[in-house]
TrEMBL record:
Domain (Solute-binding protein family): residue spans on this chain: 94-495
UniProt similarity note: Belongs to the bacterial solute-binding protein 5 family.
Signal peptide: none
Sorted UniProt keywords: Signal, Transport
Keyword Transport found: yes
SUPFAM superfamilies in the record: Periplasmic binding protein-like II (SSF53850)
Annotated source species: Methylacidiphilum kamchatkense Kam1
Taxonomy, superkingdom: Bacteria
InterPro entries xref list: Peptide/Ni-bd (IPR030678), SBP_5 (IPR039424), SBP_5_dom (IPR000914)
Protein name: Peptide ABC transporter substrate-binding protein
Length: 587
């Protein structure tokens, strides 16, 4: 009956949405002139039109690339903004993007990009080298703290960016920067003609927020395949095809083929899944525990479930090791608890106390892999299989805790040397049922060794504020998408990084092992010797596994369902299933 109730509720929501979509379906796309240097798709020619519908448990927090730090916001921005280069996950290399050509100087530090002649923003204003200069100026301006300034630097030194002419830009890195071209495929440009006034008055980080998207979506001009038609927080966002997009199909068809991409915000994962399984949406990530029953509807509702093997995503928990104080001079973490969290033996003991196989069998229905370090088996080239492992062993966990000065009292509780009962609160986001289930298993595992874990499930936005700004928390369970180049994790693994969650933005490395990770991360970043890069990254994985600042849990197998009606679908080994959404079409 519960499943039926979810179905009826969601079907009624979709039915209401269909009525509101009638006007959308009647809209006509403006036919702007093509230009000579447009990119022509190599995929089979398709038919324009159609609506692609999906759901999202979370909503974007911003449409301003400068301040975006969450995966949901990034997923929308990637649909709306393009970069100098693009990335082909099938062939695993960079390809032309807004820049039609690029050259690398013999020093391997100087790069010239020539923009396509005829490029414009979605409002028709030319997209030129001035926009590239402006975009770099934004990220490097100290008034606007952002993770990109750190990522696009080497040892704290920014890139040197020069305009050669309106179509040509030169970028010089201070040292060899191995992932430079890959980074340029993920560096969306910002429109100078729209955002420069806010750059000058210092309000840039407040622009293109949720309120902008709701009240004046057309003011958010884009360079990618889509722009915002409408945004109703808590309900849906509708993206429409960018009529001035720079890609076309063979002939006279401007991409993207689809007219509208509709994303409905559905926090309840069961309701979202039932909508897909009953044919109401086009794509859905399928959690391992739901694969079996969803597969039963493949022939009835004409979709296919794709098993993509182990995910690139990592799940982990960590303890707040930030020794700082808040504005009221109160420590972020109670001092005696901070002492626990900073003790490697304590962290290793917690890791041994976790039944990862139990999580896989009980939460993921056997469809997952234990995780011991930052990389998963999916990212074959960069995965180190020989890191230290922590198989479930409560007895060994207690031995390590005894070495660290803890003991169990007469009631079985674990206490420290000052007789404080070992208890802490673990946060995770309430929208993710897999994480809440893993947190529940974790609580029961630690109960077996006398540790009390208090669970707090909160919305993602509040959680991000706690772990990134107020530091008002003790422990947290989250994850990272992973799957890219080691350099993608600079802000996570470097001690100065904003996403170095257990103690971010360190003025100096807090520990010798963090200093060693800093050295290794810089070394892999500044060499073109791939074997050396792999060696450095393998060593980082070994240190992370030994020190356990992140206590890694499991990675689920990845399953994605897609309606059979879509053509030009090319499934990559890792990454989004419809990474080439501008090229997909339906008869």
């Amino acid at each position: 009956m519960l499943w039926l109730l979810f179905f009826l509720l969601f079907f009624s929501l979709l039915a209401g949405g269909c009525n509101r979509q009638k006007n959308i379906q009647k809209a006509q796309r403006p036919a702007y002139p093509f230009f000579e240097e447009m990119e022509t798709s190599s995929m089979p020619k398709g038919k324009p039109g159609g609506i692609f519908i999906e759901t999202s448990a979370a909503e974007p927090s911003t449409f301003n690339w400068l301040v975006s730090e969450d995966a949901t916001s990034a997923s929308f921005l990637n649909l709306m903004f393009d970069s100098l280069l693009s990335y082909d996950p099938i062939e695993d290399h960079v390809i032309a993007g807004l820049a039609k050509q690029w050259e690398i100087a013999p020093d391997n530090k100087t790069f010239r990009f020539r923009l396509r002649k005829g490029l414009t923003w979605s409002d028709g204003v030319p997209l030129t080298a001035d926009d590239v200069l402006f975009s770099f100026a934004c990220i490097y301006d100290p008034r606007f703290p952002n993770r990109n300034a750190y990522d696009l630097s080497v040892n704290g030194k920014p890139f040197k960016v020069e305009k050669i002419d309106d179509q040509t830009i030169q970028i010089q890195t201070p040292e060899i920067f191995a992932p430079f071209l890959r980074y340029m495929s993920g560096f969306p440009l910002m429109p100078k003609h729209i955002l420069e006034p806010y750059f000058k008055d210092g309000s840039l980080q407040n622009q293109w927020n949720i309120s902008t998207a709701k009240k004046d979506p057309k003011s958010i001009v884009t360079s990618g395949p889509f722009l915002i038609l409408s945004y109703n927080p808590g309900e849906r966002i509708v993206l429409e095809a960018n009529p001035r997009y720079w890609k076309k199909a063979d002939g006279d068809i401007r991409l993207p083929y689809i007219d509208y991409l509709i994303v409905k915000f559905v926090k309840d994962a069961n309701a979202s899944l039932i909508a897909f399984a009953s044919g109401q949406t086009d794509i859905e990530g399928i959690s391992p525990d739901n694969v079996a029953w969803v597969q039963k509807g493949e022939k009835i509702y004409h979709y296919t479930i794709y098993d993509r093997g182990p995910s690139t995503a990592s799940s982990f928990l960590w303890f707040n090791q930030n020794p700082g104080k808040n504005k009221n001079n109160v420590p972020y973490v109670i001092p005696y608890k901070l002492k626990w969290f900073q003790n490697k033996l304590f962290r290793q003991a917690i890791s041994y106390a976790i039944d990862r196989e139990g999580i896989i069998n009980g939460v993921l229905f056997g469809r997952g892999t234990p995780l011991w370090g930052p990389e998963t088996p999916a990212n074959v080239k960069w995965y180190n299989p020989n890191v230290k492992k922590y198989p479930y062993n409560p007895s060994l966990a207690l031995q390590l805790l005894e070495q660290a000065g803890f003991r169990r009292d007469a009631t079985g509780r674990l206490v420290d040397q000052e007789n404080h009962p070992v208890s802490f609160t673990l946060l995770t986001n309430q929208e993710n049922p897999i994480r809440t289930a893993m947190a529940t298993v974790f609580k029961e595992n630690l109960k077996q060794i006398g540790i009390e874990v208090l669970l707090q499930f909160i919305d993602f936005g509040t959680l991000v504020t706690k772990i990134s700004d107020s530091y008002d928390y003790e422990a947290c369970l989250l994850g990272l998408t992973g799957g890219g180049d080691p350099a993608d994790g600079m802000s996570v693994f470097m001690s100065k990084g904003r996403l170095h969650q257990w103690y971010p933005n360190q003025p100096q490395p807090a520990t010798p092992w963090e200093a060693e990770i800093d050295r290794l991360m810089v070394e892999q970043l500044t060499t073109l010797d791939e074997a050396k890069r792999i060696q450095c990254w393998f060593k980082v994985q070994e240190i992370m596994s030994e020190e356990q600042p992140y206590i890694y849990l499991v990675t689920p197998n990845t399953y994605v369902g897609l309606k059979n009606r879509w053509r030009n679908v090319k499934i990559p080994r890792i990454g989004p299933l419809v990474w080439n959404i501008e090229e997909i079409w339906t008869p």
